[in-house]
UniProtKB/TrEMBL annotation:
The lineage of its organism: Eukaryota, Metazoa, Chordata, Craniata, Vertebrata. The keyword Glycoprotein does not apply. This is S-formylglutathione hydrolase. It comes from Cebus imitator (Panamanian white-faced capuchin). Its EC number is 3.1.2.12. Belongs to the esterase D family. Serine hydrolase involved in the detoxification of formaldehyde. It holds the Pfam family Esterase.
């Protein structure tokens, strides 16, 4: 099935587009968003794939993050896929906010009733990049991936922050991490900041870890509008 364009808007000299296509891997229609930078009019450009978190769609990042100006200035394609199949009628897919619709976890299911449609790993790592490379002036040798929340792909494991710190060859940067102490993912041990702190400690990289009286807060270095309820500092 050919790509169906469903939206197109000018943005910082480029174009923010939305597309729909029946996925071979997922056996359903899938939407994804593509930002085409101005430089794509004259040659191939590098690409970033953004993986959104739980309950998000392909619209979440492009409408909330404000990334377009930076992508335009640096000549970057940004591809934002949906987070799961939709409307596949798999038993139980809409019973929980963190499993099924909106929560595909970028994994390939191996058991019924999920394995027919929930093949997000193969979709993200194989089908979608092939589709993008065939239809847009993307340089396939200059692609990378970023995101938040549920993305954890083994193909890109080397670019996980904890793994990057373990092999970081440069000077020692100062790292600040703010974590809301009431974040349910922290309480359920799905977030593992201690692993990152341990990796920094092993590499003698200074890190400040602050627990905030909130669900989640992010502060740039030097911000003081909210005091930390607790903090740990590893300095060398």
């Amino acid at each position: 099935m050919a790509l169906k364009q469903i939206s197109s808007n000018k943005c910082f000299g480029g174009l923010q587009k939305g597309f729909e296509r029946v996925s071979v891997e997922l056996n359903c229609k899938m939407k994804f968003a593509v930002y085409l930078p101005p430089k794509a009019e004259t040659g191939k450009c590098p690409a970033l794939y953004w993986l959104s978190g739980l309950i998000c769609t392909e619209q979440s990042f492009i409408s909330k993050s404000g990334y377009h100006q930076a992508a335009s200035e640096h000549g970057l394609f940004v591809i934002a896929p949906d987070t799961s199949p939709h409307g596949c009628n798999a038993k139980g897919e809409d019973e929980s906010w963190d499993f099924g619709t909106g929560a595909g976890f970028y994994a390939d299911a191996t058991e019924d009733p999920w394995k027919t449609n929930y093949r997000m790993y193969s979709y993200i790592t194989e089908e979608l990049p092939q589709l993008i490379n065939a239809n847009f002036p993307v340089d396939p040798q200059r692609t990378s991936i970023f995101g938040h929340s549920m993305g954890d792909q083994s193909k890109w494991k080397a670019y996980n922050a904890t793994h990057l710190v373990k092999s970081y060859p440069g000077s020692q940067p100062g790292i600040l991490t703010d974590q809301g102490k009431d974040d349910q993912f922290l309480l359920d041990e799905q977030l593992l900041p201690d692993n990152f702190i341990a990796a920094c400690t092993e590499r003698k990289i200074p890190v400040v870890f602050r627990l905030q009286e909130a669900h989640c807060n992010l502060h740039p270095q030097g911000s003081s509008d909210l005091p930390a309820s607790a903090s740990r500092v590893a300095e060398f």
